[in-house]
Amino acid sequence: MRILITNDDGINAPGLEVMQEIASGLAGPSGEVWTVAPAFEQSGVGHCISYTQPMMVSQMATRRYAVQGSPADCVLAGLHDIMKDKRPDLVLSGVNRGNNSAENAVYSGTLGAAMEAALQGVPAIALSQYYGPDNRDLDDQFDASRQHGLTTVQRLLEKGVWTQDDYGIFYNVNFPPVPGDAVKGLRATRQGFRRDMGFGVQPHTSPSGRRFLWITGAPQSQPTSEGSDADMNLKGYISVTPMRADLTAHDILEPLKAIE
C-alpha cells in the first residue's frame, strides 16, 4: 500500500511522527509512506488552497517533502506532482494536536486535507487527538492515538463505507482526552455542536501603536448533544464521523420548493 500523510501542524509536529508510525504499520514492509506536509503550522486554515500564489516545495529526505502552503495544497502537490507517476492508495491527515470534533471540524486544516483527497477520488481519513486534564500532562500526549490509531484505521478500511460518487466519503476520527489504556472503544457518531461558545477576537495594541486582533477560542469541555462526536470523546470513546464536501442542506430542498 502507498500512503500519503500530511497534517496542519507542520512537518516538524510530534503528531506527524505518530502518523508516520500508524502509516508504516498499515503499509507494511512492502509498502511506502510518503510525507508531504506544510513547512510551517497551518492550523485553522480549513480547505484553503493557495490559488493566487505559487508554493515552494522542498525535499527534506527520501519520500519526505515540505510545502509552503496549506494542508489541501500538500495533497494537491502530492497527487499531481510528487506522486504523479503512481497515486497513493490512501491519504491520512494528522495526528492533529487538539480535537477536531463538533464545530472545530469546519475550521480544521487537518480535515481540509482529507476533504481535498476525497474530492480527488482518493480514500482519506483525518485523525486528531483531543486534549484534556487526563492527558495534557502525560509524557506522551498522543498516547491514545498512538495505541489505537493503527487498529482504528484498519477497521475503517475493512468495514467502513467508501463511495465513488462525486462527493466521496472521508472520515473524521477523534481520539479521547484520556491515556491509551483508558479508551473505552470506538463509536460511529454525527458531528456535534458546542453551544454558547465559539471563536472571537481579543484586541491588542503593539508598542508602535498599531492595533492587532488575536483569535480566541473557548473551553473544549462544553457538552454537546448525546451521541455526537465530542460527547463520545469526553466519555472516553474514539469517534468516527463520516463526512462529505457537499454543503447542500438536503433537508431544506423540499420545503424550499415553495419559492418556485
TrEMBL record:
Main location: cytoplasm
Chain positions recorded as a divalent metal cation binding sites: D8, D9, S43, N96
Stretches assigned to the Survival protein SurE-like phosphatase/nucleotidase domain: 3-195
EC number: 3.1.3.5
Required co-factors: a divalent metal cation
Catalytic activity: a ribonucleoside 5'-phosphate + H2O = a ribonucleoside + phosphate
Gene Ontology molecular functions: 3'-nucleotidase activity
Enzyme class: hydrolase
Cofactor note: Binds 1 divalent metal cation per subunit.
Keyword annotations: Cytoplasm, Hydrolase, Metal-binding, Nucleotide-binding
Family stated for the protein in its record: Belongs to the SurE nucleotidase family.
Name recorded for this polypeptide: 5'-nucleotidase SurE
Species: Roseovarius pelagicus
Gene: surE
